[in-house]
Amino acid sequence: MAESHPGKATPAQQEVVNVLYLAGLGDGTVRLADGQIAHVAGALPGETVRIEETRKGTWQLQDVIESSPERVSPPCPLAESCGGCSLQHIRPEALLAWKTERVIRALHNAGFETVPQAATFQVAPHSRRRADLAVKRGASSMLIGLHGRNTKTIVDMSTCLVLDPHILSLLPAFRTVLHSLQAIRREASLHINLLDTGADILLVTDAPLTTADRIRLTQMAEDHAIPRISWASASNPEATETATQRAPVTQSIAGHEVTPPPGGFLQTSAASEQAIQAAVLAALPEKMTRRASVVELYAGCGTLTFALAQRCQVSAYEGHGPACNALKAGTGTARITTHHRDLTRQPLMAKEFAQAAAVILDPPHAGAKNQMEQIARGLPTQVIYVSCNPTALSKDTALLAKAGYRLHAVTVIDQFLWSAETETVCDFRRESSRRSRSGPSRSGL
């Protein structure tokens, strides 16, 4: 029962409430004494908690009176301050279950009454191979880390249970070297991709690199066996240039060597990349001729393209020029045709899906509204949708539900440990194709 405090609320106002469920960002949802709904970070369903209003409409957890059996002590000492992990207080198994329920609910909301049991996969700690970090100049060193939740304060990343240890091991050297650069007046950003050939670095600064800066970066690359350090100005972050390169930069994807562009997109871990590839391949028809052709949208550097080419012909579309160039350079086969095309401004038209055995898409976080409208009109036999956002997934696939598709298989991949982010692979098929399609094998996930 909530405590009642008549009169105007003050920052010190407190209530005792029951937590109903987790909202989309992983906050506990509660009903206040006045009937209003509020979201409280750190609270879990089923708990009784004391909360305090820190400012109008914003409530903070003060005390857990009755805890959930799913609650654990956060394993990272930075959990309370770092904005990277918001759900370290819940058991990993329970977190995966919540993410799966969230995806199922999103698909029900899209209009799919029947949702098959989801296959699931969760990555291990210390496996993340990508880091996008904020940098701020301090008195004697640089702060390098993530912003605290809902603040501009950078929490210095002294430890991390998510990142690959090799990335973490580079940060002390970067604190020292970046502090010496004239190119950083106040702040910068540091993007690290851990490739097969080593750490690939993109540094974005608020001032130009000087000759002395380039010499320091070159020496750091030598000292720490970094193949390439690229640079861009914060005023034009897309215009990257090579600050120093001492060795080739390559990454193997499904047996093909590619050179990702500076700061290029990769799936967060090797294990999650393989899990996504396996789920997509399992969704394809078991009997598929090598001459069969699929359309892949938002192909990136080829995360799915090269795996798909083992089974069929692939027409791959990507809007980011450097990524498309990397994909094209790494193909080495006539089974892949690459197309540079902005699918937001120039989506493929409905008629362009007529001959495709399947359409596979892995859109950005916001989804693919314009492109999905054309897919739903084109009525391809099969649509395999890879999503990193359940909300966008629900909106986009509602068009497929209205067009008569059924949901054949779902795989939920937790590659964003201790966060609310969720990866999903969904296999949609038209009702008319039911007899000609066989169910996917979901072994190994």
From TrEMBL:
Alphabetical UniProt keywords: 4Fe-4S, Iron, Iron-sulfur, Metal-binding, Methyltransferase, S-adenosyl-L-methionine, Transferase
Active site: 388
GO biological process, one term: methylation
Pfam families noted in UniProt: tRNA_U5-meth_tr (PF05958)
Residues given in the record as S-adenosyl-L-methionine binding sites: 267, 298, 318, 362
Family: Belongs to the class I-like SAM-binding methyltransferase superfamily. RNA M5U methyltransferase family.
Protein's recorded name: Class I SAM-dependent RNA methyltransferase
Species for this entry: Acetobacter suratthaniensis
